[in-house]
Amino acid sequence: MYDELTEVDIRKMREEMDHRIRVLRPQLIEEVQTARAFGDLSENFEYKCAKQAKNRNDSRIRYLERMIRTARVIEVKDRGDAVGLFDQVTIFNELAKQEMTVRIVTTLRQDALKGLISKESPVGKALLGRKVGDRVQVNAQATYFVEIRAIEKGTDDDSLEISAY
């Protein structure tokens, strides 16, 4: 299994991994050693917290390494007047009877609460390649229709953060 990611995604992951290895890891190791010196480890809350922070950092490093190793790098292509990756799309959800704006992104940058929808999600898959005025069927837990009202072309840039997990 692989994720389709852009060059910017890969670069951002490498930058985060480099920061975690070169800056955070030495700090967290030092905190663990300092907390260990406080005494009895069975009742040492500072030691437990320092150890958990170090383990979370190591886990994130392993996650980033695996994502980089297994990623398939894709190129962002302009699809003319159709919905493409990083485009902002205004849709009318017929089920909810409301208009909403979403941006189609890679799985690494998705955040539904901010309107960043993965191209792999049911909505993302349904919208890609469609044009303004199209009525599109979304197959999620419940099947519903959305109408594309506007498309604003976007680009792959550094403004979107990669998700935590």
Textual characterization of the structure:
- This protein has 165 residues and is an alpha/beta fold.
- The protein is 38% helix and 22% strand.
- The protein contains three helices and seven strands.
- It has helices spanning 7-36, 45-70, 122-127; strands at residues 4-5, 72-73, 88-93, 98-105, 116-118, 135-139, 143-152.
- The strands form two sheets. Strands 5-4-3-7-6 form a five-stranded mixed β-sheet. A two-stranded parallel ribbon has the order 1-2.
- A hairpin with a 4-residue loop joins strand 3 and strand 4 (98-105).
- The chain starts with a strand and ends in a 13-residue tail after the last strand.
